[in-house]
Amino acid sequence: MKTKIFITTVCLISAGFVFGQNKQPGKAEITAMKVESKIQSQSYEITVNRVNPMSGKSRYLTSGYSVRISSDSAYVYLPYFGRAYSTPMNGDGGIKTSTAMDNYKVDYKKGKSWSINFRAKGADDTYRFSISVWTSGKASVNVTCNNRQPISYWGDLVLQ
Question: What pTM does this model have?
Fold first, then answer.
């Protein structure tokens, strides 16, 4: 009788160890952890592959357009399609700037996405960026300018 009680106790304790172990994180959890790490490091890049102008059709992009954040600076190279209210004589046509950011703010919407907002000054305009990065690594970039219509982009966070 004592042997049966001893064996039962050992089996119950062993079962608790076997079934109580943590599972290995899945691919989605690993990606979410990488996204969180990149955003919190304030050193990341979003490659853009689609543009959504206010007027006109959505277009897929073929060149290497991106928004790169490094510490307190933003490096932006994006195309622009839309109405410009005033343009400089020597304008390149796109949104290009490499400057320090103002009012950089990051908010996390639990389990869904990161919301990043900042302002950057270009040579001829001031840009307000509103970026959403989902835990899957997908991203949207919305840009509001003083001298142009707002425009939005879709892309991916670089997770290397």
Answer: 0.78
